[in-house]
Amino acid sequence: MVRRALAVLAVAGMLVLAGCAGRGQQSEESNASGPVTLKFWNGFTGPDRPAVEELVKRFNESQDQAKIQMEIMPWDVFFDKLLPSLSSGTGPDIAGMDTAQVPQYAVKKALKPVDDYYTQSGNEADKLIPAAVQGATFEGTKYSVPMNFTTLLLYWNKGMFKEAGLDPERPPANWDQFADYAKKLTKDTNGDGKPEQYGLAIADHETIAMWPILFWQNGGGVVSEDGKKAMLGDPATIQAANHWVDLVRNDKIAPIGLGGADADKLFQSKKAAMEIVGPWMTTGFKDAGIDFGLAMPPAGPKEAVTLGTSVGFTVSAKADQRKTEAAYEFFKFWNSKESQVYWSVHSGFPPNRTDISAAELKENPYVAAFAAPADKSRFYLSNVQEFQKVNETLFEPALQRVLNGKANVQDAFGKASSDIQTVLDGS
Amino acid sequence: MSTATELPAPPTVPPPPRRPGRARGSLARRQALAAWAFMLPSLVVLAVFVVYPMTQALYLSFTEYNVLQPARWVGLENYQRLVSDPAFHNALLNTLYYAAVTTPVSVALALGLAILLNRRLPLRGFLRTSVFLPVVLSLAIVAIAWNFLLDPNIGLLSYWLSKVGIVSEQGWLRDPALAMPAVMAVGIWKNVGFYMVMYLAGLQSIPRELHEAASIDGAGPWKRFRRITWPLLANQTMLITILAAIATLQAFDQIYVMTRGGPFFSTETVVMMIYRVGFTEFGFGYASAMSWVLVLLIFGLSMAQMAYFRKRTVTY
Amino acid sequence: MAATAAPAPVGRSPGVVRAWRALTLVGVLAIAAVMLLPLIWMVATSFKPEADIVKFPPALLPDRVTFEHYREVWQRIPFARLYLNTIIFAGGVTLISLLLDSMTAYALARLRFPGRNVVFVAILVMLMLPFQVTLIPLYDLLVGLGWTNTLQGLIVPRATNAFGIFFLRQFLLSLPRDLEEAARIDGASEFTIYRKVIMPLAAPALLTLGLFHFMYNWNDLLWPLIINQDQSHQTLPAGLALFMGQHVVEFGILMAASVLALIPVVLFFLVIQRRFVEGIATTGIRG
């Protein structure tokens, strides 16, 4: 009766558990004489993945002291998984993450400082791009080693320039030209108020930072470089914002409400003539048959600057001496000349090293262009502990409100700025 | 409310004579024991893997917890914060708006489709499958599809609609006024098949003879629906309405993949905010407090629904 | 079959009947088109060369058809392995869950005992807390049990399901009460009644619930990804997610993989759908 039910259940349960007897939890311990196993997580899905996997494979094959076990998943899932695993001690030894995310983990002591990597001779850390090394620094301490680095450049569609009567080989060099060209390239042929073609594709959420570049170029910004002072309410920022928001709202040079992916699709489908974005779109744009040029974003009144962004290798605070040494070996291998040439050519990201010539990278003709402005690049929200809160909860909504005409720049940015300052002060 | 026409009474076997009292008691005891035995495996699993984490979450709601460092007790502070937090009020309003529209529309559509697809119809199997397929599709992938289709500049749907004069300048998902209706539409589209299938299962258990007898007596389709179908479906309706309410009040997935709660929080629901505060801002204590407030809300609503339906459902 | 065919309306001319039929057909196709549009887009995209996917003016059907994405899927990810893992996971959860859910629902619907309503309400409450807050405590618990990266860690927390219990309870409540009385009086054990009398009648509900469990777990990305630490244990959604880069989504191959991943669930539904048509739902009303 009831006993039978329980018996069936017990048997079923035992079968399940027996079937699992073979699959135990991965042991994190390595015996003293075998290779050290390093768990390495990152978010390089998509077309970047093959290059990452190849380099990891090469490292594993090149020596037998350390073995990298890599797991790749999309970035949002990556962070969802990272959090509980860090708290329960089942996290990765090496986590690749955007340097903007590093501070919040560093401050909670989840990551190990890696200053000694940079001072160890033989790691050739002096050959790394200074901007990338700067990005790896938080409050004076280095918490990551560059895994990738890139700047953003202005893409322009030469065919559309020509159609609009502009010289296809001369991209805008300053803000006046930028605005002027954008207006010329915006076409509303059927007069319904919605352009069929936009001069510019610029994203205001879920994107790599595009608007902040405009603020920097006028001497403004979202937060000061030392991460201590909110600059969103500064006159320079407000002036830049007003200038460009006007152009977007009144001259309709760009659609409102684009995410990063939307902006890419707009340029790729030839509905926008210009976009400021990273090297990952070169293949897609080329395959779409677009004859595009690459240049530094048009200089602003105060500065010619672009965004620098980098994913870095971080080491878990729980990694012991052996694992840390093995990790350093991996970082050294990754950033060696040979690996970096392979990486650049196959992923499209510029190399992390300063000593690779354009000739060595000629298989991928665009890479050199993205490497060039490295010293004119700035990291977004560097030294800010609560990146998401400042960017996604405070800055982007304020920008979106302004673009949607729900508030004026002065009010929205002023309020956001003081909220941001509260967050900066509290951390 | 009148119940259905009397069902023919099933044949019963007269019980053999028994000693009253003790036999009754032992029958009841036997049933009770059997009941607990039946429920034991489920209850054990639920207790360990659901109730225990829930109590943890309850504890965390009285703390400040960023996952990486030990939780710090703060008492009722999180709850007090919620009372005056405009972001939470916004999320709550959005959630209620979302649920208030999506639930009745989904249920009504599901019922209509189920009734339609319970009759003999050409391509009935094909239509049932098409209505159900969105349920089966992975939401992340479907969001990519919808983003492509609804893109105001290069989207297929926008393109077709523009040919008949319907143009959205900014796009249905990017315009703060249209984003919520767009997300609702996708939510309804995705789930209506789910409820329809449940209704179909219920419709199948209404004996054909009832309808036949009624229509011979001259009852038209609407009357038959009101007097036979609707009351006999009451169990399903209760199930579906409560489930739909619980699900829509916890709306997260379609919002996360389509708008991430934007533009500027106009589609942020409570669970979306819980995710944002918990996972991206590391405020798990506050997020837990929010979820328990949500539980209270959902619980209150569900109990009200159950009370409403209790008088109306048919249990034999 | 319990559906009614409306008795032929008297006095309608064949023309009107045909017009109605045509209208119904148009209506059916319109509804189907709305429901299926994204799926049609997905399938069409899976046959388009990558360069043709993002373009203006947009076209639904491919100009040039290619099978390269379907070929590439098998090379880029261990698709067969992912399929197998997902079948084990979703299938395992479904089977075990059906057993446990139905047993609990039987107790709640067909047996009388004190505390019945309390248990039911308690189970209902479990549906009301968003998983985002219980994820981390649950994960910690599994780590404590040593169950991360194991099959039992993946399946047991889902071995029973508040939704399933609720669903089956409602269904079982609508079966006539006297069904079991005769058997009880004859001295049959509750388990026999459960197995031989009630469960066969609950077949449509069990199939439906089975479909729901299967489909939910088949498409679940976060849970298996968080529990599994080993690439070889990963499930289909995790594999599909590998085609979604941070900046570049490989649409063609992603859609091809999604279409392939859809097939089992769609098949499952088609099988059930036919059983509805065959009308297993002649419930015990006829005694």
Please write out the topology.
The complex is a heterotrimer of chains A (427), B (316) and C (287).
Chain A: H1 2-20, E1 36-42, H2 49-62, E2 66-72, H3 75-88, E3 94-98, H4 102-107, H5 115-119, H6 130-135, E4 137-138, E5 141-142, E6 145-151, E7 153-157, H7 158-163, H8 175-185, E8 198-201, H9 211-217, H10 235-250, H11 260-268, E9 272-277, H12 282-287, E10 292-295, E11 306-315, H13 321-334, H14 337-347, H15 367-371, E12 377-379, H16 387-403, H17 409-426
Parallel strand pairs in A: 1-2, 1-3, 8-9, 11-12
Antiparallel strand pairs in A: 3-11, 4-5, 6-11, 7-9, 7-10
Helix pairs in contact in A: 2-14, 9-10, 16-17
Chain B: H1 22-60, E1 63-64, E2 72-73, H2 77-84, H3 86-116, H4 124-136, H5 139-150, H6 156-163, H7 176-204, H8 208-216, H9 221-232, H10 234-249, H11 253-258, H12 270-280, H13 284-310
Antiparallel strand pairs in B: 1-2
Chain C: H1 14-46, H2 68-76, H3 79-110, H4 116-125, H5 131-145, H6 151-155, H7 162-173, H8 178-185, H9 190-201, H10 203-218, H11 222-227, H12 236-241, H13 251-278
Helix pairs in contact in C: 1-13, 2-13, 3-7, 3-10, 7-10, 8-9, 10-13
